[in-house]
User: Fold this.
Amino acid sequence: MEYVVAISGASGIAYGIDILRNLPHRRVLILSKGSMEVAKYELGDGISEKKIRDMADECYDEGDFGAPVASGSHIFDAFIIAPASMNTVGKIASGISDNLITRVASIALKERRALIILFREMPLSSIHLRNLLTLSEAGAHILPASPGFYHKPSSLQDLYSFVTSRVLDILGVDNKLIKRWGD
Assistant:
């Protein structure tokens, strides 16, 4: 199994990091240009680019079209964009592949591989909603970064774990990150 995770420059970098940290098997990471700037702002000095890169088996910058994952002949099981900026969502929905993130998303859609879009934006414009609908109709899983509260979170990590658990559920990865409804 190979999972590809992209971290864009949208707010909510901690979601992407938590998903990357909890994925089993082989992990390939794509970092956007703005992701580390947002990470430093949101997470402070507690996280470095090296620490994030070290969570993956391979790491590529969004401008690296020579990466193996840029080819449809490279087999991966799922592509997760967490967080996904509305800029990235709009490009993918329009068929624009101008960086490695949008290229791998295009591959996931055309090859019918799992594509998970974890967006973190509010409010949503009609354009955002249309783009998300277009991606859903093309086969992508659309997840807003909005954790539940029935598991009675007591920390930020509990909120991240809720969202990560839902991503892992879609991938069929057994996890015990949260207390499930009815447990």
